[in-house]
């Protein structure tokens, strides 16, 4: 059991970068003030992460690993509107090319995932085909999933 001298209540899943676990937490339940807590696995010590001047930290903020450094993503609103109509997009992860992957949670036809590139300020829209069978329920999108579809038979 590791004791922490910082009274806090974790609110969302964290992210591990270079041996440190970062997560958002409420530090004052009465006011709902949140902060980012860092737990260094090697030293087993807790610390606060100070936010950058002018940066906002909301409960909806998502912690990301951007080129090996901690960052946060916060949307001004939950919806993006464009050629595809209106879709609620959710953060899935960062690609190997340091692009933010966004995906809808509910089926649509056509079904797209979006890659946002910070450096270029561009968005790539990628259509996922054969999603017509999914008409109800939620979509769970995973990054870097590889499935081996080889057929193995007993010889």
TrEMBL record:
NCBIfam families from the UniProt entry: F_box_assoc_1
Pfam families: FBA_3 (PF08268)
Signal peptide positions (record): none
Domain of life: Eukaryota
Originating species: Brassica campestris
InterPro entries in alphabetical order: F-box-assoc_dom_typ3, F-box-assoc_interact_dom
Source lineage: Eukaryota, Viridiplantae, Streptophyta, Embryophyta, Tracheophyta
Annotated F-box associated beta-propeller type domain residues: 1-76, 86-146
Protein name: F-box associated beta-propeller type 3 domain-containing protein
């Amino acid at each position: 059991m590791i004791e922490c001298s910082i009274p806090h209540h974790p609110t969302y899943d964290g992210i591990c970068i270079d041996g440190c676990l970062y997560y958002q937490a409420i530090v004052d339940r009465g006011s709902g003030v949140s902060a980012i807590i860092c737990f260094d696995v090697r030293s087993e010590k807790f610390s606060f992460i100070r936010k950058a001047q002018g940066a906002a930290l909301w409960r909806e903020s998502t912690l990301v690993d951007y080129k090996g450094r901690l960052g946060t993503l916060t949307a001004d609103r939950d919806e993006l509107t464009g050629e595809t109509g209106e879709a609620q997009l959710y953060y899935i992860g960062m690609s190997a090319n340091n692009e933010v992957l966004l995906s809808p949670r509910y089926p649509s036809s056509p079904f797209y995932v979006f890659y946002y590139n910070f450096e270029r300020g561009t968005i790539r829209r990628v259509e996922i085909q054969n999603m017509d069978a999914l008409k109800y329920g939620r979509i769970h999108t995973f990054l870097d999933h590889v499935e081996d579809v080889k057929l193995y038979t007993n010889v």
